[in-house]
Amino acid sequence: MPTHVAIVGGGLAGFVAYATLRHGGLEPEEIAVFGTDRDPVGAWRPRAEAIRQRAMRSESDGHCLPTSFPGLAVREALRRRTALPLLLSAVDRYHPSVTDFLDHVAELRERSGWDSSFRAAQVARVHAVEGGFSLEDYGTFRHVLLAPGHPGLAFPSELEEDPRAVHAYEPHEYADRVAVIGAGMAAATEWLNALAAGASVVSVRRRDPLRRPLNLPRPMFSKRGLALFHATAPEERAEQLRRFSAPSYPAGRSWDEPVEDAARRGRFRVAAELNGAEQVICATGFRRGFQHDPLLARLVADHGLESRDRWIVLAPDSTVPALTDSTRTLSLAGVPGQWAYPAADTLVGMKYAAHGFLRKVIACPTP
Amino acid sequence: MSYTLRGRIETRLVAALAPLLAAAGLSAALAEWWPVELAALMIGVGVCLDVVAYHRLLPYQPTWLAVPLGLLELGVVMGLVFALGIRAPLGAAIAFFALSWALAQALVLAGLPLVRLSYAEDGGELGRPGQAATALSLAVVAFAGGIAWATRPPTVHLSAGVHRGPIVIDQEETLLGDPGAVVVGGIIVRADGVTVRNLTVRGGENGITVDDADRVLLDHVSVSDSLLDGIHVRRASVTVRDCRISRLRSPYAQGIDISFAIDHPPSMVEGCTIAGGQEGIVSHSANAMIRDNRVARTSLRAITMTEMSMGMVDDNDVRDARGIGIYCGDHSMCEIERNLVTGVQPDRASQGGVSDGFGIVSHYYAEAKLAYNHAPRIRAFSYGTIEHARG
């Protein structure tokens, strides 16, 4: 069978797309996955380990399977023979453990044939050709999904040479006096980690974080919220995406009580600027914008693709309109897909792009 | 899940398809329309709530909310079943609703997400298969409704004025009296599913006779001057609602006599006013519910359940009866609650026996359970028992 479908990027977004294509009937030999690490969580796992993450922010449907059912709550309920995960899921309080999530990825990797489709290669350039896309020396493919992941860690420029500074997603321990820059999920996790390690913590932030269970309001994960989002004018849409990227973490006693207790004891305070901490942990996430990703930046430049601010303009199904027609498909998954799906960097968002990609592949089979 | 309005409606109609088809099958098997009527009502209530309330109030619907919303819909549906007079047995209707709800939950949580990859992200919309299933659901409702319309029992109007009887009804139909319509000589019902409504009946051997028929409704009928019983029911099941019975000509006549129907569905007598007669309302070997009636000036007993009858006597107003107000006799099992019995006079022929002016009597191996009655002289005779459950 000819290989006519390529996934560029071997991380979670590529993995979700692969599982979806397999569910849609494609055989492993029909799909080529290009990446630098065979392990789909090769990039994600060290970050989770660095911030000592134990539970996922996502809920039962935060998995890599193409269908939302059965979710991780059902699987855990069956494995542990208890209805508790299902009850927690019914009230939106279920969050799978990181261990369970990693086990699930490993099991799906084994079962899906991922490794037989994987090709260890860094694709630096994707170029549209007649009836498909050329991936440098690796061949031409009719349907290509780009899932390059985040374009590197974001570091405050003034701290780049500061020996006290470490990014939250890099391995680190905790000094006695720690400043944590940021106000999102990673920052909140680091407050608790540092406090648990006996440190005094200064939360350095310019604004108070939003408290919400998921990255975005729940209607934004479905057509209900997306229909309005897709209908907005480009400038307004970019503004919405900027608002959506404001840091947030879930509400709940498990987050608040340790911080409040430490604040009463003088071990936690909020400050607007750094001031003499032994260690500075930058929970500042990732660099933002396609311009920071060489592959995407070159793609836009080569083909004159429409972009707005830091986003490539996409169709609602996450395809690149100028390079997608009845004979070929170019889709973006993961964080570059935010123009189509604001929560594109979540597992549910990765599935959204994958579903759209599968529809295109099925609609345009190999002649 | 965050449904779109279209997603809510498509999901609901797809989930309703199997119950609707089951209801159609059930209707065919039972030769009753209530399953289809109930299923259609469930769909109608659900879609109305989707459009009017759920879509506006619930931008996101957590899984647990399906339970209170299901109970809300059950309440509305059952209220409408009662208000519209749909003849659905309560237990069966609730069971049908519960099974349909459970099936819908299984579909929403598991079935539809499995067969349609983008079910959640599409807000419950189902694309072309959803449109097809929606069309099929609507087609089934329309088809069943068409059959119901085409096969509905005919309605016969009796115009104002006097009509000579006896009128014999031997097929399913509705006999509807216009204001001022009077039948002289009685009505005889010998078919299932007959409704007699808004009629005055004078004379006849019995005012209205129901013989060997089920699902008969006598609604707002007024009976007088019959030779024997006002309403005479044998081997049949009736609902008598808001009737008036008076001026019975025989001293041995009964107002309403429901007998020998233990193997038929329960009968109901509700909201009737009966004056005179030997017994106002009596059941022999029948299942009956006698509720919210006014019975006065009877010569033997006002309300009687006897000869292995079973049923309830509740919220009745009995006045000025001779002999006994409420009687449960001969191996019958009666639940007698919240009745008001006043002015009972002794039957002088009784000579101090069972008819010596008692409010409530349990007689000859009958079992009477009493609660919240206001009645003088409550007594058990000849191995009859009385249990004061409450009050």
Quickly list its features.
heterodimer, A: 367 residues, alpha/beta, FAD/NAD(P)-binding domain, 12 helices, 16% strand, B: 391 residues, Pectate Lyase C-like, 27-stranded parallel β-sheet, 5 helices, elongated
Summarize the structure.
Chain A has 367 residues and is an alpha/beta fold.
What's the helix and strand layout?
The complex is a heterodimer of chains A (about 375) and B (about 400).
Chain A: E1 5-8, H1 12-23, E2 31-35, H2 44-50, H3 72-80, H4 84-90, H5 98-112, H6 114-117, E3 118-120, E4 127-129, E5 132-134, E6 140-141, E7 143-146, E8 165-167, E9 177-181, H7 185-196, E10 200-204, E11 210-211, H8 223-231, H9 234-244, E12 248-249, H10 253-264, E13 268-271, E14 279-282, H11 294-303, E15 307-308, E16 311-312, E17 329-332, H12 347-363
Parallel strand pairs in A: 1-2, 1-7, 2-3, 7-17, 8-14, 9-10, 9-14, 10-13, 11-12
Antiparallel strand pairs in A: 4-5, 5-6, 15-16
Helix pairs in contact in A: 1-12, 3-4, 7-10
Chain B: H1 5-30, H2 34-57, H3 66-83, H4 90-115, H5 127-150, E1 155-158, E2 161-164, E3 167-169, E4 174-177, E5 181-184, E6 187-189, E7 195-202, E8 208-211, E9 216-224, E10 231-234, E11 238-241, E12 244-246, E13 254-261, E14 267-270, E15 273-275, E16 279-291, E17 294-296, E18 301-306, E19 310-314, E20 317-319, E21 324-329, E22 333-337, E23 340-342, E24 358-363, E25 367-371, E26 378-381, E27 385-390
Parallel strand pairs in B: 1-4, 2-5, 3-6, 4-7, 5-7, 6-8, 7-9, 8-10, 9-11, 9-12, 10-13, 11-14, 12-15, 13-16, 14-16, 15-17, 16-18, 16-19, 17-20, 18-21, 19-22, 20-23, 21-24, 22-25, 24-26, 25-27
Helix pairs in contact in B: 1-2, 1-4, 1-5, 2-3, 3-4
